[in-house]
Amino acid sequence: MTLTPTTKRLTLFSVALALFMDVLDSNIINTSIPAISHSLQVDPINLKIALISYFLSLAIFIPMSGWVADKYGTKRIFIAAFGLFIFSSFFCGYAHTLSELVIARSVQGIGGAFMISLGRLILAQTFKRHELVEAMNLVIIVVSVAVMVGPFIGGFITDHWSWPWIFWVNIPTGLFAILLATSVLKDTAPRRVRPFDSIGFILFGGSLALLCFALSALSETQVDSKNISIIILIAILMLLLYLVHAKRIAHPVINMKLFRIRTFRISTSGNLCARLGFGGMPFLLPLLQQIGLGYSAQISGLLLMPIAFGIIFSKLFSLFILRKTGYRPYLIVNTLIVAVILCLFLTINAQTSMITIALMTFIFGIALSAQYTGMNSLAFADIHEDELSASTTITSTVQVLAQSLGVAVGAILLRYFSNGGTLSLTVFHHTFLAMAGLTVLSTLIFFSLRTEDGKQMLTKNVTSS
Predict the structure, then answer these.
(1) Is 71 exposed, middle or buried (0-12, 13-18, 19+ CB in 10 A)?
(2) Which of 37, 111, 207, 312 fits a disulfide with 238 by CB distance 3.0 to 4.6 angstroms?
(3) CA dihedral sign of residues 112, 272, 262, 451
């Protein structure tokens, strides 16, 4: 069925709103971490578990979203996900302990998992292959508004009201999103589905949960190295068991056969490794500004807003450059640029002006957006239409898992360089340098691309639907 341009635009906006809520919630909490940690009486670094628990729920439940949507209908589940997100946001604001906040954030992540995965699936089914990169760019621009207003709103609310309201602002946005999705999205009847891979879900989800928990524990004040090592070994064993299990059944929860497609494999592995380098920046920058430099939460939010301006500015030319250069040189050069920009943050000290810091975050936003444009779109280059659901499941899972691991790595580096002491500027400088090194290493993955890779994503002379 051919969709009208108006229907496509409204569908695009509906999906963008889902991602808007997810990104807003992720960014609005960052500038409030010091205040929340003070309220809950925990170390600011330890509060990273509230961030990781959300991303971890995303990574665990995204793989089952496609199956649930097929069984009960994409539109119905997409709207239900908004409802769960609103419900859990309400209880996040009522958390009185770190444990309560982590539980509420985990439930919130379940709603976010279905919103993100089904939103991307809706885009992949709505737009033709050559339209998909541009559609994804437009979604990112809308999402950039969340990146822009999130830190400022979080800082403003924290300074002038109280931190629970950073979660409650999701409620009116979510209600509007439900109304929009109800009126815009086409009804999709439930389909006959394959048996759900419950064993694979337990093995794969369990391995991710244990791995993220172990990495999170490494940044705690008291570290039990023996127990953490055991947990990591169990996580690896469960993942290996899943790989064996996935080869023996027809429909595993994660279709590992897609990794035989070279461009898909490079896109997902590059996403994972690159985000280990820079994925922790949204967690680290507010800590640098508030603890290292002594800024208020509101000022910290203002200093993070230029990242969103950089993302929007990048969209004016990144796709043009990608089409001119192709994926291989684009991703290699831009990844190195991201690493160089991370090194710029080493120059920040007590005498650095706010304008200079804002300029750095603006430049970082440009490079970050350009990186996502290349990495995310490459995954669909050689994917058959019948495999879109499975591929979006994997790419969404990898991206949120990488974001979770990026926060964990950032926290581990902070704890390592501080040696349990004060989070001084020197500690942050060493952390940024280490993250830049990890980012440089990820370029080795993009060197395996070929010159012609992804050309079908960059031209209209493609017969796809």
Answers:
(1) middle
(2) 207
(3) positive
